[in-house]
Structure formats: structure tokens, C-alpha cells
Amino acid sequence: MTASDRSRTRASASRSPVDSEGQGLEGRPERLRVVGASLLVLEAVLLLGTAVFAVLNLRTEADGIPTVAFGLAVVLTVFAALLVLAAVSLLRRGRYGVSYGITWQLFQALIGASMFKAAMLAPAVVVTVLAVAVFIILLKPQCRPDRQGLDG
Q1: Residue 146 confidence (pLDDT) above 90
Q2: Full-model pTM
């Protein structure tokens, strides 16, 4: 066996396995991370939409409400920014994305339950289904943080 043959053998052994469709098997766990991060970003967009709604619609309701609407918009914007940071961390295999994402989904499930009690059925279903879906995705082993790099 020549040196070039040994080099080619080592190179082919170091490649990731390929499935029947020619896609790397290592890419499959990454798809789940991308889906989880995408859903976190979707939640952030929905929060920003709610913040805009609060500023545009609640400020005209009654005295004192504009201040509450502005405060609500600021809080929702901060949570949306944290969700985007969690999505980025999830894609980078950091610890923050999974831990914050799971905590946020538990909070969202509580909000969904409150919406059911208030007879806001359509938003309650959307919030609850999204929270449960993201919660399940974030609990999958493929979304666990990288233990090699301890920075998050």
C-alpha cells in the first residue's frame, strides 16, 4: 500500500456516514436543532407582534393605559430578544438555548392555560401547542448542549 492509498483510506474513514439518499447522517440531528431554533424565533416574532399590538391598540382604550401598553411592549421586546439569543445558542450547541427555551415553554404553557380559563380559545390553542412542540424538541438528545465547550 502506497502513502497516497493510506492517505485516501484515512480520509474516507474520517468522512461522516452517508445514508441512502446521499445525505450525511450527522446532518439529521442538526435539522432538529434548526427546527427548534426556528420555532424559538417564531415565538420571538409573535411576541414582537403582540408588543406592536399593545402599543397601537391599547393606548387608545382608557386613561393610564398608554403607560401600561408601553411597559408591556418593552417587556415583550426584551423577552423576544432573549428568545432570539436562545435560538442562536441552540444552533451553536450552547447551554443557554436549551435551558432558557425549556423554561420559556413552561411559562408559555401556564399562559396558555390562563387563556383557556379566559375563554380565549384560538390564541390559547396556538400558545399551548407551540409550547408543547418546542418543549418536546428541546428535550431531544440531539438538542443537548455540547459538553466539550463549556461556554454557552
Answers
A1: no
A2: 0.72
List C-alpha distances in Å: 25 to 11, 18, 30, 70, 148: 17, 6, 10, 48, 21
Question: Does residue 63 lie in a domain region?
Answer: yes
> Is 6 contained in some domain?
no
Dump pLDDT digits (tens) for 36-71: 999 999 999 999 998 898 888 776 766 667 778 888
Residue 6 confidence (pLDDT): 54
Alpha carbon separation from 131 to 15, 41, 43, 59, 125 (Å, rounded): 37, 13, 9, 29, 10
* In a domain? residue 24: no
Any domain includes 81? yes
Name the β-bridge partners of 24: 18
